Every structure is written in C-alpha cells, then in structure tokens.
Amino acid sequence: AAGMFLRALSEIQWRAAHPKWRRMTSSQRATSTTAEPPPVSLPAQAQVVICGGGIMGTSVAYHLSKMGWKDIVLLEQGRLAAGTTRFCAGIVSTARPVSIELKMAHYSNKLYQQLEQETGVQTGYMKTGSISLAQTQDRLISLKRIASSLNVMGIPCEIISPKQVLQLHPLINIHDLVGAMYVPEDALVSSANVSLALATAASRNGVQIHERTSVSHVTVQKGRVTGVETDRGRIQCEYFVNCAGQWAYELGHSGEEPVHIPLHACEHFYLLTHPLKEPLSSSLPTVVDPDGRIYIRNWQGGILSGGFEKNPKPLFTEGRNQLEIQNLQEDWDHFGPLLSALLRRMPGLEALQIMQLVNCPESFTPDMRCIMGESPTARGYFVLAGMNSAGISYGGGAGKYLAEWMINGYPSENVWPLDLKRFGTLQSSRTFLRHRVMEVMPLMCDLKVPRWDFQTGRQLRTSPLYDRLDAQGARWMEKHGFERVKYFVPPGKDLLDLDHSKTFYKPDWFDIVGAEVKCCKEAVCVIDMSSFTKFEISSTGDQALESLQYLFSNDLDVPVGHVVHTGMLNEKGGYENDCSIARLSKRSFFMISPTDQQVHCWAWLKNRLPDDSNLIMEDVTWKYTALNLIGPRAVDVLSELSYAPMTAEHFPSLFCKEMSVGYANGIRVMSITHTGEPGFVLYIPIEYALHVYNEVMNMGQKYGIRNAGYYALRSLRIEKFFAFWGQDLDAFTTPMECGREFQVKLEKGTEFLGQEALLEQKQNGVYKRFTMFILEDHDTDMDLWPWWGEPIFRNGRYVGKTTSSAYSYTLERHVCLGFVHHFDEKTGEELVVTTDFINQGEYEIDIAGQRFQAKAKLYPFSSLFTQRRRKDEVELSGYQRE
Amino acid sequence: FYLTPPQVNSILKANEYSFKVPEFDGKNISSILGFDSNQLPANAPIEDRRSAATCLQTRGMLLGVFDGHAGCACAQAVSERLFYYIAVSLLPHETLLEIENAVESGRALLPILQWHKHPNDYFSKEASKLYFNSLRTYWQELIDLNSGETTDVREALINAFKRLDNDISLEAQVGDPNSFLNYLVLRVAFSGATACVAHVDGVDLHIANTGDSRAMLGVQEEDGSWSAVNLSYDHNAQNKHEVERVKMEHPKSEERSVVKQDRLLGLLMPFRAFGDVKFKWSIELQKRVIESGPDQLNDNEYTKFIPPNYHTPPYLTAEPEVIHHKLRPQDKFLVLATDGLWETMHRQDVARIVGEYLTGVHHQQPIAVGGYKVTLGQMHGLLTERRARISSVFEDQNAATHLIRHAVGNNEFGTVDHERLSKMLSLPEELARMYRDDITIIVVQFNSHVIGAYQNEE
Lengths: 882, 458
Description:
The complex is a heterodimer of chains A (882) and B (458).
Chain A: H1 2-10, H2 26-31, E1 45-51, H3 55-66, E2 72-75, H4 84-87, E3 91-92, H5 99-119, E4 126-127, E5 130-134, H6 137-152, E6 158-160, H7 162-168, E7 179-183, E8 187-188, H8 191-204, E9 208-210, E10 215-221, E11 224-230, E12 233-242, H9 248-254, E13 264-266, E14 269-273, E15 286-289, E16 294-299, E17 302-307, E18 314-315, H10 332-345, E19 354-359, E20 362-364, E21 371-374, E22 381-385, H11 391-408, H12 430-443, H13 466-471, E23 474-479, E24 482-488, H14 510-522, E25 525-528, E26 533-539, H15 543-551, E27 563-569, E28 575-585, E29 588-593, H16 598-608, E30 615-619, E31 624-630, H17 634-642, E32 656-661, E33 664-670, E34 679-685, H18 689-700, E35 706-707, H19 710-719, H20 755-764, E36 768-775, E37 791-794, E38 797-808, E39 813-823, E40 830-831, H21 835-839, E41 843-847, E42 850-857
Parallel strand pairs in A: 1-2, 1-12, 2-9, 5-15, 12-22, 25-35
Antiparallel strand pairs in A: 3-8, 4-8, 5-7, 6-7, 10-11, 11-12, 13-18, 13-20, 14-17, 14-19, 15-16, 16-17, 21-22, 23-24, 25-31, 26-29, 26-30, 27-28, 28-29, 31-34, 32-33, 33-34, 36-39, 36-42, 37-38, 37-41, 38-39, 39-40, 41-42
Helix pairs in contact in A: 3-8, 3-11, 5-8, 5-11, 14-19, 17-18
Chain B: H1 5-13, E1 17-20, E2 32-40, E3 48-55, E4 61-69, H2 73-90, H3 93-104, E5 113-115, H4 128-145, H5 153-174, H6 179-190, E6 192-201, E7 204-210, E8 214-220, E9 226-230, H7 240-248, H8 255-258, E10 259-260, E11 263-264, E12 274-275, H9 283-292, H10 295-299, H11 301-304, E13 321-326, E14 331-337, H12 339-342, H13 347-364, H14 376-390, H15 399-409, H16 418-425, H17 429-435, E15 439-446, H18 448-457
Antiparallel strand pairs in B: 1-2, 2-15, 3-4, 3-5, 4-6, 6-7, 6-12, 7-13, 8-9, 8-14, 10-11, 14-15
Helix pairs in contact in B: 2-4, 2-5, 2-6, 3-4, 5-6, 13-15
C-alpha cells in the first residue's frame, strides 16, 4: 500500500531529458531494482558540487546554471526528490511573517507557475488560494499584520469575514471563527515533480546529475573547499553546496573541519483520504487553521490534512542515516488531537474514508528560520537547509538567493536573518537541538507576538553575575545563547505567566521599564552587557592599524585611549557590522560588536586580514564582563570608587582608560553607553566581575543606583534615534542612508572598503533614508503597539517599512524607526530621497491594517540631550540588536 | 466518606520505589533497565517484605518478595539475610578466601551486595552481629568443602534457601544471652515466610520459589499484544504435585490428615516456607524451647499450640523450586508478587496492564488502517476511547503502583473505579484484612536491546 501511495502522491511522469542522466520511472522501480543501467562515471572535477537532490539542491542547480555557471555536478544519495521533498504536502504559501521569507515564497510561486511551460514537466501547479482562519482576536491581529505586508508587496490578500469563508469553502465550520485572511494566489504543486522539473531544466543547462551517489565528506585545505569524497570516487571542486536536508547536520560534521549546521528532524504527520462522494474540486482553497494547529488541502478529490502538534516527536538525534526515507510508522494516537481539530473544522468529513496517515520527517532550526550561506570556516562551502516544513514555499527563492550569493558574492536581498553565520558552534549540540526543535515545531502554529523568547536551550552562556541578578528579580531573554536581562521585577510585584503575557497591546512590564528608564535619566543604572562580541587585534608593527584602516570606514588613526564608532562596510558601502573600536596602544585595538556578530564578524575579518603571523586577532568575548553605568550620577559613582576624577574635563566622551575600581585593577573603562545618556562601560576581567558589581552597587546606593535591563536600554536608544545593526542596519544600508556620514572619513588618507560607493552616494544622493517617526494619534493603553515591519505611508502612498519601535517614556509617545524610499508615482522606479522629500510629507504607520498619523524626523530631539557636551562628541551609535 | 484522588494517590504511593540501572556512556550492559516496586498493607503492621540488590562480587541482580505469616519477624529476617546466603553460595573459592582473610585480620570487607531499598525497608541493627556470624560459619564451611567446580546458580539458590532456614532453626534452638535477641530469634523461627526470588544475569533468569508468591514473565507477541508466562509454581493445595509430594513424604496413615481443608495439617496455606518451626521440629523440641524461652513466648497461645495429627515432622520445608529461563527480546518484564495480587488479578490481566503501562499504549497496539475501511469519524471515536483508557496510566510513575491501583480498584469491566478504590483504601485496619491481603509487587523491566545482543553473540 505504501508503494502505491508514493506513486499516487508524486505522480511522477518522467521523460529522460538528458543522456547524462538516466533514471527509471517509479513503476519500474516498484517492480524491479536489478535492471538498472550501469551508472555514468563521475567527473574528476567540477566547479560546483551540490549534495542533495531534493527541492533545495535542484533549485540551486537550476538557478546557478540559469545564471551562467555550467560546470556543476549534483549528487543524490538515493533518488531525486525522494526525501522530505517527496512527502511534502505541496502547499505554496506566501503568508510569512518574516519579510525575506515572504519574498522567497513569492518568487517561488511565480517560478513554479511557469515551470511546466519552461520544462515540459508536469508540476501539478494549481492556483487555489489559501484561507488562514482566526479563532481569536489576537490571531486575527497577527493575520492583519501579515496582510499589511503582503499588500504593500503587491500580493493580493484580504481580510474576510466568516461568511465569506463559507462562500470560498463550503465544508468549513465557521461558528467559532472571528475572521480570516484570504490569499488568492497561493498554490498547490506536486513537490517531487517541481523538483524534477528544476532538475530537468538544470540538466539541459549542462548540470550533471548523479543519483545513488553519496558524499562521505568534503575536503578543505587552508580554509577553502578543495573537493568531495563520494562512495564512487573523488571530485575536485571549488564550491560545495550542502542541500542534504535533515542530514545536513551530519554531513557538515563529517569533514575534518566541521561545518555546524544546526537543524534537527521531527516526525511530521498528515492524513490522506479517499475522495469524497462528490469529489472535492482541485481548485478549492487550502485551509490553514493555526489555532487548531492544522492545514487542509484538497487532494485527488479527497483531502490532505496535517499539522504541528504541541508534543512533537524529534528523531534521528543520534544521527542515523538512511537513503530514501521509508514510510515511518503511523501513529494515530499521536495524530488524535489534530484529527479532532480537523473534524471540528470540517464536521462533514466524518464519513470520509481514510487512505493513509503519512509520517514524514521535517527538519527544524533553532529560530524557526531556514539556514543559508557560506560556512564561516570553509570558504566555498555553502549551505541551504532547515526549511521548518516550508521547503516547497521557499525552494525557488532560496535557491535563487544562494545562487546569487555564490556568483556575485552576495544575494540581491538582505538575508542576514537566514545566514548560517547567525549561528555558531554553540547551537550545534545535539541535546540543544533536540530540545529546541521540540519547542520550535509547535511554534509554527503558535501566535507570534512581539518580544517572544525561546524557553528551551537556555542558560548556556551566562555572565558571572547571573545568579546575583536573578535573585534581584531579573527576567531573562537570550541572544546567541547568552542570557540577558529584560527588566527587573521589583519585590512584591507579580507579572503574568508566560502564556497570558502574550499580547499585541501594552505589555505588563510597561511601568517597570518606565521606572528603570527614569532612573537612567535622573540617577544611575547598571546594565550587564557582557554578551557583546569583543575582539582584540594587535600586531608587532603597523599591520593592525593599516589593515583596520582599510576594513573600517572611520579614521582609526586616533590618539591612544580614544574610542571610535565605525561601520565595517562591504564593497557597496553597506554595514556588515557596526562597532566601537578603542585604540589600546599604538599597535593594538579593542573592538566591540553586537552579540550575534561573533561568527560573522570573525569570518569577515579572517577572510580579509592579511595572512601575517605578526598580526593577531583574538576573540576575548568570554574574558570580560561588561557593566554599563548609565545616568548623570554614573560619574560620581565611578570617581568615588576609583579615586580618580571622572568629569568631562578629565575623562571626555569616547575615551578609554585602564583603571582601578574598588580593589580590582586593570578595569577597562570607556565613556560610551550605547544609549546617548551619559555614563561608562566597564570591561572587567571576569574574576573581578562580582567584586566590581558589589562595589558599584554599594557605592551607588547614595546616588539611587538600581539595576536595569535591555528593554530600558532599547527605549532610550530608539527615542534618541540610534540605529542598531541587525535590526535597523544591514548589509544593504550605508552610513549615508542613516545619517551617519560623520562616522565616515572619506578623506582619511587611505583607501577603505566601500569608499567608492559612499563617494558616489555623496555625490548622487541616497535612495532610502533612515527616519524617525513619532506616532501622533496613538493611544498607548488602548491601541495596538507597533513592533517592526509596519508599512510606512507618505501622503497615502507606501514608502517603506519600520525596522524597530519603542515607547519613549520621555516623549510619552511611541517612536518608530524605519526607511523611507521614493518610488516614482507612475513607474515605481526608485528615486533619490532628499531631506525635503522627507520633511514635506504626511506620514502614517500601518499597524495591522490600522493607520496612525506620524511625524517624521531626520534628527533626534535636541531637548533630550540635556547632558550634551561638544557637538562632535555626541555619541551617535548603538548597535545591539533586540 | 470518600478519599479524594490525591489522598488515594498518597496512600498508594507511600511505599513505591524505583531503581534505574545506571547507563555507562550509553552502553547499558545490564539486561535489566530497572525495576519498580511497591507494597500496600492490609495487616498492621504489614507482614510482606521485599528486597533488591546487585551482586558486587559476581554478576547479576537479586530481587525477591517475602510473604510473612504469624507475624512479620520471619519475613523480615529472610528479606535481610537470604540474598547474602545466595551471594555467598555464588562466590568463587578465591573470593571466599579473600573475605575470610579480611575478617580474620580485621581488614575492610569486600562489599558483597549493593542494596536498593525504600527508606521504609529497614535492617535489624541488633541482630546484625548474630546474622553475620551465622553467615560466616556458612562460608567457612563452603571454603572447607571447596569442590573446585564452578558454581551452578540453581544449586546455589537451593543451598542458600535451605541453609538460611537451617540457621534460623538453629539460632532459635541455641538462643542468645541477650534477652532481646533471644526473643527475636524465637519469633523469627516461630513465624513463617514464603519467598520468591529472581536472579538475573545477562539472559539467564533463575526463579527460586518457596510458597505461594509468584513470578510471571510479561511477553510481547509479534502483534504487540501481551501474554504471561509463569515462572514459578504455587506451593499450596491447588498444586497437585505439591499435594502429592507432601503426602509421599509421610506415612500412608497420615494421607487424610496431612492436607485438610486445602491446608497443611489443616492449618497452613503455603506448603513450603521459611521458619514455621511448629511444622518442622519434633514436639519435644518445641516444648523444650518454649519452656526455656522468655515469658512472652509462653504466654502466646499460637506458639504453644501443637498442630493436630503431628506425627512425622518435618511437614514443611524451605527448599525452593528453581526454574531457569533464557531471556528473549520479547520478554519485556518480570513481575514478582505476593499472593495478595494474584488473588485479585489473573496473570493475563497483569501482563496486559503492566505491558501497556511500560510501553505506553501506542506501541503496544498501534492502530493501522491497512486495508480496512475506516472513516475519519470512526477513527476519531476510537482514539478518544483509547485516550480515556490510558489517562489512568499517567497518574502513576511506578508500574507496581499502577498494578496495585488496578488490583484494588478494578470494577467488573476491568477499569479502575475511583469509588471502589477509595472504599477499599479507607477500610478500618481490623476490616482491611477481610477484604484484601498485603500486596507486594516488584516489576523488573528488561533491556531488549541488550538481550538481543546477547542472543546474537551466542
């Protein structure tokens, strides 16, 4: 019966399209496995070797060959499209909360639509549309937010009433619905056939495809891919692409130099039925009922329905490999709750006869986003995997971006949220992955509210002060495995439990954070910022300075003891990183970057610093605890503790000095705060951390010192219009576009990366501009809060999206930061954005379909800078990403 | 009045104990995964005992249940002592010598057993010296007898049982200068206990049984269903061979009196037991010991009472019947339990309830649609029913507790009825014994992978 089904689902209709690539039809396979023609021998070398013949591997091959690379070999250990791809439910859905994922899905949909015509392979493409149902008001809000971002991308989408749902799909029980979202252009495909179509096209473009060939490991020499060892011999290559799906983790670990690809498989169940008495129309929309945790599509006159249960079953933790995923055991008891949800949604299906319960493993990642990009340790080693059960939706777009990345050095969109380098070795523990994916899979259907923190895999990296802060009521969030304080719950005050605290409105910690902000403004607060990435770069001669002058846009040839805020830009002038660099001595520099830059920044610098044994770069993140003293009284606390004058005359802004605090000597004190408030950051060798913290808290008592968390920091930095890398800034944003020209020294005497692009922008103007918006008619208590990703409208026309937002306790208003573009009214072409264009407009921010008036500003409120010193010393940077 | 479910649970769980065999780097070399045990008293104090220990000088693990009668003294003594006798019987000559030399020279002894005890399972401190001396005499004799042959587990078990019973009898005859101990050894000898002991070493499972407790193997059939295999025979009137044996051992003239009303001499239910010297000693010996014994003994009507038709003692033996079983991968667990369980439940039900508990219901009976015509509605109904059925499973973290819950609370449909459970557990002490007996259960779970690997080696 299983064999029957396999054929039925994939409906593979194969024609031998290319002589280099021979395969049998599936019916032959079912009856005989011996009559196979001898395999074509492998080439000795190729430019690119792709491992994995699923939707990802074939899509990468398709796009690479289409963009002109021809010398490509695709290896599949079993049969093409025989893994997860074969079992995929085949739903192409563009309703994705993350904008880059939405773009990938949109592109995939357009690609699949014309694929049959292009290749002659039937893909089963059917534009059915999809309906996402909301059983609660909160769910409807989240759908409205998605609808807003679909609409501004030109993807048809509407929020509909339960009655309209019934008109679109007669089987749906609408009694418990409050609304729904309809995306008419969503589609169904046969995923295996899409993959085969892509393979066919790639093959015609010269890609060699070899089935039944498994990669044992990838060889790397001097940090570059040199070849691939297979069970049928070795292939030399420049590029390797790991599209091994749920085996990508293992394949990554098989080489001498492991490539960490954090993903883990979970069992995934869906049900197939026989046709209804009156067979369902193949154009009936797909139904997604996230509150019931299920999806339902029409399938051969019956239905296909699966879901994401609360208690997933992770598998292959111990790393078993197998060729084609055979049908794993059906588990009806496990599927029970989903079946209940299905019959609740479509009670009319009671009498429908079951055909099969399919168990097909899917791979999930630690943050629910897929993994693409180049390994930080092995150049030329690319990865595309971990699709979190949306492989068919992302397949086309993800393959395109990766192909662009390989050919051009970077994709045409900002894919940092998907970049492999957002992870390090720390997310690669099997136990961590097993626990985390058990949380991630149910999250597929859970309500995605602002400020969500993962609950599993926590307390991995902690500051030495963790227990001390925890005992004082700290509530924690996690960044790159590091525990950071959100805020401190005062004694005697209770917050809502996790489930009840989920909201799109004013959160329960509002007043708590308000009090911390107030203390930062009026007295002094301590924030533990140890998670930041810290590198030391030094050399015997001038190599360090020379290299850094080339890699960073600001002038680093400053007197010893000065701190410089600077971007680490790419050729296009975009921010690869935003950091603060202190010159410790003539020949050594201390560099502070956002927490999640640990892997990316390291790889970026490693690949670009000269290969010189006298030039040393060290990751010292773990060596220092960082305490940020924010507020007007920070200066008093520190001078009392150090017996040294700390006033602006003796310790100006952007200054760095090693000094003693309490008994501890050698504390690196910097006059920066990342928020624009006056204060200092203390970099403390970890063994002194507790001592210095105790001293600071004791001494600070008379100045009203208290602990504060990142939410206070965030509110402070956003009201001061500080952009944070990873949130507001990315590789596609230049300093010119975010008002940071003053952090670039175009004429510093030496050439630097991105200089040309910046010079051109200076001359010709910018095409987007980082802008601050103050919401005018927004009721903080009653209205939905902005988050990020809200569309910005200027004079009623869409001009861009917000990138971050916070409530400003000083302005008593919400502040959103975002980029404004200037699209030509007729052609849609992007035009230069001028200051006048920004200033002469009426702005609105769209929060889940509701528009709020906003005032645009290109410069922060000067009244907020009460402690302002010299104008050029005003610190205009901050860069942690929330 | 009724007990609330939490009250019921706290009663049922008061004596539960679990032991997991530690894994070493994922390579669990023991064929035992662990065991759950529990007991529910009906007598006050409870007369059942249980023991579990790992042999440290030889391989294997020992587990046993002991059902006392006429008091708990004998069961207590056997539960403390029997495993030492077995372990010593299994020791090779060199180890015995080493131990004896250590004792002789006052050095620290090699540990022989590692006990796995519930906090309520106690050892008598006062008697430990006495017990130790008897044990030492036993191993000294073993050293002298050194046959040079490797020890056979069956023989070791039989020797250990017989030797311990003999020592119990001797200690009572010799007495002790300490009056407390003197009274203790007499109480041990005049009360009785049955014993059902399992020795597990790799795939070799030996059951040594004396009396009417029972060992049962839970076997999972290929279709996932559960069946029970008996690994012991009850030594009571229901066992024809036992009745025959007893009759054979006595003159024809006693044929009618030796088993009367399904009891030994019309008095004793189990046909084999430890202690119970009233069924072992001659009348003269009994009288002499009682007369010279402490007053408490003299005042006790039971001890003074001589069984009727008592002509050719001994009528009772502690010699066990030993059954050897080679474990197979389908042998998933072993249940050792006193007759309190077997009186209320059929072994087939025990196998099913424990099996379903240990595996969770899905594995044991996966639903497969296969070629059948099943509708979504039918499947939904079926699943709802199954969920209701297993909900009681999740209340217990201990297979023995789960079994007791069923034994006491099962209604005529074979499901746990809270009302009934509550009633049975709230019976006043003096009534409890009328409705149920002490129940003691050990459930040993086997590691099928290890057993499979053993099999492949052979």
